[in-house]
Each structure stands twice: as structure tokens, then as C-alpha cells.
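pasting for ref
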Amino acid sequence: ERVLAKVNKVLSCSAEDTLANAKTLSFTTLLEGGLEKLREEMRYTVEFEDDLYDIVSFKKSMSGNLCFIEISCEHVSYRLNDKKLEFYSKSGTAKEVLLGLLEGTGFIAGSEALAREVTYSSQNSGTVRAVLFDFAGSIGYEVVFHRYTVSLVPHRGESKDTKILNGNVLEINKTINVT
């Protein structure tokens, strides 16, 4: 892939990777170093922390004599939403079912040994990404995406308490929705 720009400093950044299946990235930076060449008719991919995200929108703005760009991205795994499946059904190891779901998508299955025999049948048509999450949940696993690799793991995240307050934390916020 051709590099359009390398961003060394950002003004703000938000990366989200949730158990509720969201994996997004948004950031704001100065409009310089090649970013001014972004065109709305083109597709772009961002590399962030050794992972890949597709740009889904960007906004160029000017304040005083400075130009800014706000970029919103979705993980490349969202491309799996472009392929629809009609009532998928397969028996075999969990890895074989995963390989079947990913067939023809350009994504690969992770190297975890998923030798457990399963039978999976999707009761509804849906996107490959949605069916992946349904399949993983049906066998008690969770989905992890990294670049173009899809892995099924028994548990994501830490299983023990983690101290989050250290010298790197600048701010903690809590938003409460009362509606």
C-alpha cells in the first residue's frame, strides 16, 4: 500500500475496542504532511498501534490561520459487513466453521487451536461480521480482530483486577445517560 501521509502528532484521539463489537478510531490533527491530499472519492486505510482502520469520514476545517482535519475510522473488519450470508450452516471443528465463514473475504483465521467439534447453523441471513459474532457466542467464545486476522478466544481482556491510575492517565470522565 502506498503511504499518503505519516501523522506524528495528533491534537486528540479516541480509540474504541469494546466487547459490544465496536472497533473504531477517530483523531484530529493539523492538515499538513500530505493529509491535504485526501479526496472524498478515494478509500484510505490508517495504521494505528499495529492495526488497520478504514477512513469512513473526514472533515477539514480552518480556525484562525491553522487548518485541521478530523478523521473517523472503522476497523478493516467492518468490511465483513459488505458480504451477506444466507442461512449459513456447517459442522466440523470451530476453526473449520470459522474458515468457512471467512471464505472469499480476504480475512484469515487466527492460529489458535480450535479443535472442538461443533455444529453451527445461522437461523437468519446477515453479514459475515454479524454471523461471526453469533457463531462465537454460540460456542462461548469472543471475537478478536487484528489487521485481517479473525481469532476466537475464550475470554478477551484481563481476568484479574488491573490498576488503571498511574502516571500516564491524564483524565478520567464518566458520562451518565438518564433517559
